[in-house]
Design goal:
- The chain is built from no helices and 9 strands.
- The chain is an all-beta fold and 81 residues long.
- The strands form 2 sheets. Strands 2-3-9-5-6 form a 5-stranded antiparallel β-sheet, with no helix packed on it.
- The protein is globular.
- The chain starts with a strand and ends with a strand.
């Protein structure tokens, strides 16, 4: 499911309504999953900052760009509705 980012960890609930994506570095990642219809929160651990990433979604692939923090971040995705 993860492409172009070997250090990224990904987990999803069985009903596919919630996912967690651990970004261990300030890096981007492509995931072979269409996250259209999801909303996202990103939590940066070092500074305890919270942001709303806006990934690019195309042809069944979701791409998260490089985030603006210097450390690890966790992205939580929740299905709308």
């Amino acid at each position: 499911m993860i492409r172009h980012a070997d250090d990224v960890a990904f987990a999803m609930t069985p009903d596919r309504r919630t996912a967690a994506i651990n970004m261990p570095h300030n890096m981007g990642a492509k995931l072979d999953f269409d996250f259209g219809g999801y909303e996202f929160d990103m939590i940066e651990f070092g500074g305890r900052n919270v942001a709303r990433p806006r990934p690019s979604i195309r042809d069944g692939v979701t791409e998260f760009g490089v985030h603006g923090y210097n450390g690890d971040a966790l992205i939580v995705a929740r299905k709308r509705g």
